[in-house]
Amino acid sequence: MKQKVSDKAKKNVVKKEKVILPVYSAKAEEISKIFLPKEIFDLKPNSNLMQLAIRVYLFNQRKGLASTKTRSEVAGGGAKPWRQKGTGRARAGTIRAPHWRGGGTVFGPKQRDWTLKITKKMKKVALFSALSQRFKEGNLTIIEGINAKEPNTKKALGLLTKLGISGKILLVLPIQSQIIDKSFRNIKDISVKSVVNLNIYDVLSNNKIIFTEEAIEGLTKHFLLKGEDK
């Protein structure tokens, strides 16, 4: 008699179907092949979902701190500036009126919360769509790893030159490394991210994506094996 597999167990099973890419050494020599999970790198890009995820990301970066005071919020104006009649001047009831110097602002910006929300599943699928798009474009490169004991911009630039990669580049590491960050910091148009901090904006705002082998493993564990929805 066959045992039924629960839906929860099915979700935790990673499919065996994968795509393959070459792995390059620090000398830009192909040394092996790596299998990439199709769930992440072989989806049909969902342009509508990616656009929504980008919009949510950008809106959530807004601080919304601009704020002006209305006539009820500015200081002063408790007493009538002058009597209603007999002065020859236009009648006035308060110095806080908008047409007075130092008065309140009409229809000025007010502090607001620009935060938008998107479900965790939609956010994850949007990221996978972006990675799949870069893979299908041929803009995904896998390297063996970066072993550096101290920051060295010259070696970092040499690696990119040997790989023949130019333009806006995103380097994805398994974990954040201060040494590697400093090595690439002074190189124009390159950013460094760890797997857990990777987001769709980083992927789509850079033309080329470089993953280390360990970063691919970390990506698989973070989003598939552990069922993370971040």
UniProtKB/TrEMBL annotation:
Keyword Membrane set for record: no
Record-linked InterPro entries: Ribosomal_uL4, Ribosomal_uL4-like, Ribosomal_uL4_dom_sf
PANTHER family: 50S RIBOSOMAL PROTEIN L4, LARGE RIBOSOMAL SUBUNIT PROTEIN UL4M
One Gene Ontology term, aspect cellular component: ribosome
Organism of origin: Candidatus Woykebacteria bacterium RBG_16_39_9b
Record protein name field: Large ribosomal subunit protein uL4
Assembly, per entry: Part of the 50S ribosomal subunit.
The UniProt record lists the keyword RNA-binding: yes
MF terms in GO: rRNA binding; structural constituent of ribosome
Record region (Disordered): 69-92
Similarity annotation: Belongs to the universal ribosomal protein uL4 family.
Keyword entries, A-Z: Ribonucleoprotein, Ribosomal protein, RNA-binding, rRNA-binding
Lineage: Bacteria, Candidatus Woykeibacteriota
Role played: One of the primary rRNA binding proteins, this protein initially binds near the 5'-end of the 23S rRNA. It is important during the early stages of 50S assembly. It makes multiple contacts with different domains of the 23S rRNA in the assembled 50S subunit and ribosome.
GO terms of biological process kind: translation
